[in-house]
Amino acid sequence: MIREGSIHLPFAYAAGPAASRFLVSLRDEGRILGSPCPACRRVLCPARSFCPRCGDETGEPISVGPAGTVVSFTAQAGGVVFGLVRLDGADTAMLHRLLGDGMRWTIGARVRPRLAARRQASITDIEGFEPLQEPGDGT
After folding, report:
1. Which strands make up the sheet holding 43-44, listed edge to edge?
2. Which tens digit of pLDDT belongs to each residue from 1-34?
3. 53: which of 5, 11, 36, 135 is 20 to 30 A away, CA to CA?
4. What is the pTM of this model?
5. Distance between CA atoms of 62 and 73, rounded to whole angstroms?
6. CA gap 74, 83 in Å, rounded
7. How many C-beta atoms surround the C-beta of residue 131 within 10 A?
8. From the CB of residue 134, how many other CB atoms can be counted at a distance below 10 Å?
9. What are the distances in angstroms from CA 63 to CA 17, 35, 44, 66, 72?
10. pLDDT tens across 88-109, in order?
11. CB 99 within 8 A of CB 77
12. Is 111 in contact with 70 (CB distance < 8 Å)?
Protein backbone atom coordinates (compact mmCIF):
# COMPACT_ATOMS: atom_id res chain seq x y z
CA MET A 1 0.00 0.00 0.00
CA ILE A 2 1.31 3.45 -0.90
CA ARG A 3 0.10 6.38 1.11
CA GLU A 4 0.72 9.89 -0.21
CA GLY A 5 1.32 12.81 2.08
CA SER A 6 3.84 15.38 3.14
CA ILE A 7 6.15 15.86 6.07
CA HIS A 8 6.97 19.26 7.54
CA LEU A 9 10.60 19.41 8.74
CA PRO A 10 11.34 22.78 10.34
CA PHE A 11 15.03 23.57 10.71
CA ALA A 12 17.39 26.38 11.60
CA TYR A 13 20.76 26.94 9.95
CA ALA A 14 23.63 28.26 12.04
CA ALA A 15 26.13 29.96 9.76
CA GLY A 16 28.95 29.80 12.31
CA PRO A 17 31.29 32.61 13.39
CA ALA A 18 33.18 33.21 10.11
CA ALA A 19 30.16 32.97 7.81
CA SER A 20 28.13 35.14 10.21
CA ARG A 21 30.81 37.86 10.08
CA PHE A 22 30.82 37.52 6.28
CA LEU A 23 27.03 37.97 6.06
CA VAL A 24 26.81 40.80 8.62
CA SER A 25 29.65 42.70 6.91
CA LEU A 26 27.86 42.27 3.58
CA ARG A 27 24.59 43.50 5.04
CA ASP A 28 25.87 46.40 7.15
CA GLU A 29 28.89 47.64 5.21
CA GLY A 30 28.54 46.18 1.72
CA ARG A 31 32.01 44.62 2.19
CA ILE A 32 32.93 41.09 1.14
CA LEU A 33 35.22 39.24 3.53
CA GLY A 34 37.73 36.47 2.96
CA SER A 35 39.62 34.34 5.47
CA PRO A 36 43.40 33.99 5.29
CA CYS A 37 44.80 30.51 5.90
CA PRO A 38 48.11 30.85 7.75
CA ALA A 39 49.32 27.40 6.63
CA CYS A 40 48.40 27.48 2.91
CA ARG A 41 48.84 31.25 2.60
CA ARG A 42 45.60 31.44 0.62
CA VAL A 43 42.67 33.81 1.13
CA LEU A 44 39.36 31.94 1.05
CA CYS A 45 36.21 33.68 -0.10
CA PRO A 46 33.54 33.59 1.19
CA ALA A 47 35.09 33.72 4.65
CA ARG A 48 35.14 30.44 6.55
CA SER A 49 36.42 29.17 9.89
CA PHE A 50 38.84 26.57 8.54
CA CYS A 51 40.74 25.83 5.36
CA PRO A 52 39.19 22.98 3.34
CA ARG A 53 42.61 22.14 1.87
CA CYS A 54 44.69 21.71 5.03
CA GLY A 55 42.11 21.87 7.84
CA ASP A 56 43.85 24.71 9.69
CA GLU A 57 41.85 27.40 11.45
CA THR A 58 41.78 30.62 9.45
CA GLY A 59 42.83 34.04 10.68
CA GLU A 60 40.85 37.24 11.12
CA PRO A 61 38.69 38.06 8.07
CA ILE A 62 39.97 40.62 5.57
CA SER A 63 38.23 42.63 2.85
CA VAL A 64 38.48 41.28 -0.69
CA GLY A 65 37.27 42.69 -3.98
CA PRO A 66 34.95 44.28 -4.66
CA ALA A 67 36.04 43.71 -8.26
CA GLY A 68 36.87 40.24 -9.49
CA THR A 69 37.45 37.98 -12.47
CA VAL A 70 35.16 35.34 -13.98
CA VAL A 71 37.05 32.03 -13.91
CA SER A 72 34.19 29.86 -15.21
CA PHE A 73 30.50 30.19 -16.08
CA THR A 74 27.48 28.30 -17.33
CA ALA A 75 24.28 29.53 -18.95
CA GLN A 76 20.98 27.97 -17.92
CA ALA A 77 17.68 27.83 -19.76
CA GLY A 78 15.89 31.16 -19.61
CA GLY A 79 19.08 33.19 -19.82
CA VAL A 80 20.26 32.76 -16.22
CA VAL A 81 24.05 32.69 -16.03
CA PHE A 82 26.05 31.45 -13.05
CA GLY A 83 29.75 32.02 -12.69
CA LEU A 84 32.70 31.36 -10.46
CA VAL A 85 34.15 34.75 -9.55
CA ARG A 86 37.58 35.17 -7.96
CA LEU A 87 37.52 38.50 -6.17
CA ASP A 88 40.66 40.61 -6.12
CA GLY A 89 42.71 39.60 -3.09
CA ALA A 90 41.15 36.12 -2.86
CA ASP A 91 42.62 32.82 -4.01
CA THR A 92 39.34 30.91 -4.26
CA ALA A 93 36.24 31.68 -6.31
CA MET A 94 32.65 32.11 -5.21
CA LEU A 95 29.62 30.94 -7.17
CA HIS A 96 26.99 33.53 -7.98
CA ARG A 97 24.75 34.92 -10.74
CA LEU A 98 26.29 36.91 -13.55
CA LEU A 99 24.11 39.85 -14.58
CA GLY A 100 23.87 41.73 -17.84
CA ASP A 101 21.15 41.35 -20.45
CA GLY A 102 22.64 40.10 -23.68
CA MET A 103 26.12 40.02 -22.18
CA ARG A 104 28.47 37.65 -23.96
CA TRP A 105 30.41 36.35 -21.00
CA THR A 106 34.01 35.28 -21.33
CA ILE A 107 36.47 33.71 -18.92
CA GLY A 108 38.63 36.55 -17.65
CA ALA A 109 35.81 39.12 -17.74
CA ARG A 110 36.11 41.71 -14.97
CA VAL A 111 33.06 42.10 -12.74
CA ARG A 112 31.82 43.88 -9.65
CA PRO A 113 29.03 42.95 -7.23
CA ARG A 114 25.62 44.57 -7.48
CA LEU A 115 24.30 44.83 -3.94
CA ALA A 116 20.61 44.57 -3.10
CA ALA A 117 18.90 47.78 -2.01
CA ARG A 118 17.55 46.04 1.11
CA ARG A 119 20.04 43.64 2.63
CA GLN A 120 19.25 40.99 5.24
CA ALA A 121 22.56 39.18 5.96
CA SER A 122 22.11 36.61 3.20
CA ILE A 123 24.23 35.70 0.17
CA THR A 124 21.37 37.20 -1.86
CA ASP A 125 22.49 40.59 -0.50
CA ILE A 126 24.64 40.34 -3.62
CA GLU A 127 22.10 40.37 -6.46
CA GLY A 128 24.84 39.13 -8.75
CA PHE A 129 27.99 40.27 -10.49
CA GLU A 130 27.83 42.72 -13.37
CA PRO A 131 30.43 43.70 -15.96
CA LEU A 132 33.01 46.13 -14.62
CA GLN A 133 33.49 49.12 -16.83
CA GLU A 134 37.22 49.76 -17.03
CA PRO A 135 38.29 53.27 -18.08
CA GLY A 136 38.44 53.46 -21.86
CA ASP A 137 37.06 49.98 -22.56
CA GLY A 138 33.75 51.20 -24.05
CA THR A 139 31.55 48.68 -22.15
Report:
1. 43-44, 32-36, 62-64
2. 888 989 988 877 788 889 999 999 999 999 999 9
3. 11
4. 0.83
5. 26
6. 6
7. 17
8. 10
9. 16, 9, 11, 8, 22
10. 999 999 999 999 877 789 999 9
11. no
12. yes
